[in-house]
Amino acid sequence: MAPQPCTAEAVRWFLARGFAVLLPLRRGYGPDGGDGGGWAEGYGGCASPDYVAGGRQTARDIAAAVALGRSLPGIRPEGVLVVGQSAGGWGGLALAADPPEGVVAVVNMAGGRGGWAGGQPNRVCAPDRLAADAGRFGRTARLPTLWIYTANDTFFGPDLAQAMHQAFTAAGGSAQFAALPAFGADGHSLFFGRGGSAVWGPVVEPFLAERGYRPR
């Protein structure tokens, strides 16, 4: 895999609002399998997955990227917003449960793990476990989070997304939920999809305003 370029629509949306954007490539996702021991986000077998363990490894890489970004010249080290999509969104929830210094909010775009089980759309490995593990993150998560899912996400459909959100908030997590209409052929691609920012942008903008972010 490769990070999105600086010209990508999602990146430009944040740049236009005064953010510096860092696009980390986590361990194991690079063309050579990545450095640092290869892919670290495994969650075990489909029958009995440990989604918490996989999410914590994702969060570990996000935290390392945040620490690096905060140390760069010209970067304001406070008020960091973490935006994660798919496995990155799940890692963002894990990060909210154990946030590093500087991070103040998380946007979870279609987050989860175990989707497309067996190579089949709309099949998830142990979906009840995924919801329960969202609750485990919610027990200690105190950062505000925004969850964005679409009606035609073939990885994590509306019912499962709602179940994860309910478990997270019931355990004490702070989470706004946005159930958006179908987007393209598969709503899982909303965040980086062409025209996607016109759909998620009006949801993200007020969330940012509530956190004190203002367009420059």
UniProtKB/TrEMBL annotation:
This is AB hydrolase-1 domain-containing protein. Pfam families: Abhydrolase_6. Residues 12-172 form the AB hydrolase-1 domain. InterPro entries: AB_hydrolase_1, AB_hydrolase_fold. It comes from the Bacteria. Gene3D superfamilies: alpha/beta hydrolase (3.40.50.1820).
